[in-house]
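To: structure subgroup
Subject: Chain for Friday's discussion

All,

I'm putting the inputs and outputs inline so they're searchable in the archive.
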Amino acid sequence: MIVDQMLSTIQIVHSHHYVHRDLKPENFAVGLGNKQNQIYMIDFGLSHKYRDPQTLEHKPCLTNAKAAGTPRYTSINALKGLDQSRRDDMESLLYIWVYFLKGSLPWMGIPYNEKDPNRKYMTILHIKKHYPIEQLCSELPEEFVKYFNEVRSLKYRDEPDYA
């Protein structure tokens, strides 16, 4: 149910022409009382419009964009300096789900020199690029690997298949 609600929520955000760009567990909240089964997305401080609301024309992809978001959960493309779009939010969701289900991610807790935080980002990027998705999603339903492969195949302007 959590996965379904997170997908529905990001689909709504995207339908309003925004990408969140900082999806992480801390940016989701659970309702109280009679809303205790409802998931809410919060903190839109790094979000931005990915397309013009009138023409629906997608903005061009910047290739030297500053990575926004939390490196642990942000997409490979964002860590490589590409502008984020819907596909990147979708990739971030997978990392969150794997974290929820397994309790950790392979790039968590890596040592780094605080004087060079870019080195940490590059190390996380390297691990994400080379870590087999089948290993990342081991012991999880096969749908996680299928989801990841589909999301990874999306081009910058492509609309994800939220269903």
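Points worth raising on Friday:
The chain has a mean pLDDT of 93.
The beta strands are 18-19, 28-30, 39-41, 48-49.

D.
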